[in-house]
Amino acid sequence: MPPEPDRSRSGLGDAEDHRAAGRVVVIGSLNVDSTSYVDAFPAPGETILARGFEVALGGKGANQAVAAHVAGARVEFVACLGDDASGAFACDTLERLGLSIAAVRRIPNASTGVAQITVAESGENTIIVTSGANLALTPVLIDAERERIAAATVVLTQGELAVATIEHLALVSNELGARFVLNLAPPAPVAAEALGVADPLVLNEHEARAVGIGTDAPGSTNLDEWRALAASAVGAVARSVVVTLGAAGAVAADAGGSWAAPAPRVTAVDTTGAGDGFTGTLAAFLAEGRPLPEALDLAVAAGALAVQARGTVDSYAPRVEVLAAAGVADRASAS
Question: Percentage helix, strand, coil, to 5, in the chain?
Fold first, then answer.
């Protein structure tokens, strides 16, 4: 088996040259991941020994903020964490990765959110999340960030926040003219009015069915069929729709058309956080002004690169690798 790509780094290197391309404000969850690596998942009541253990930055908000940053966007990350040792670890890690913590709030007497992850030899994972200080990210905090939202090219959030917070952020982003990107993961009962302004609404197959896209589609539904299903939801569910389909790739649709992006065949080492790498990359390139089908290709390439390395944020490939893998020119280099 070839060695895993070395993605550990203390900065963004060549991505810094593209920082002016677009401004992404990520308002989302931040957790500390405790990951155990096992041969196979335990059966109910069974105790097994892990092959390895790691503690790392996580949470869909943090993961997607890092992915957008690595892809070259100017990122501001709004999050809440505890005043505990895990919170200090999270702040140190964000700064190591080159992200500002100016909009990250430390909540007194609160614990930082945590995710307990198990990764099997197959690369599949199970995840249990305890929200902790993430619950302090309320609609009141969204109102306190109106100036930051108004200055954003793209506002990105995820289903790990409270439903009331997601809905309020959607309406505020729409009111202030910022492009609202919602990754409804995990699925949450967000009001149709809030879903309707998502551009795009990013979902996996399970999440798509939860909002009524492809509800009756069989498990064998292929990329082209999912492309048509995504197209049917444009204007009815959201302004634009992206559906990720794991190793098969992803599809996207907006008012101008629909597209399918097959994923390259790779050997998956760890799928944890790959969907967040996809979404953060998608948001970054949309903020840069790339059309949806091109941003889709780049996001699929980023996801495929991420699964070939262990961990979450340290598995995200640099901008130059993503562009090369997708066969897409770097506009800044060409100018």
Answer: 40, 25, 35
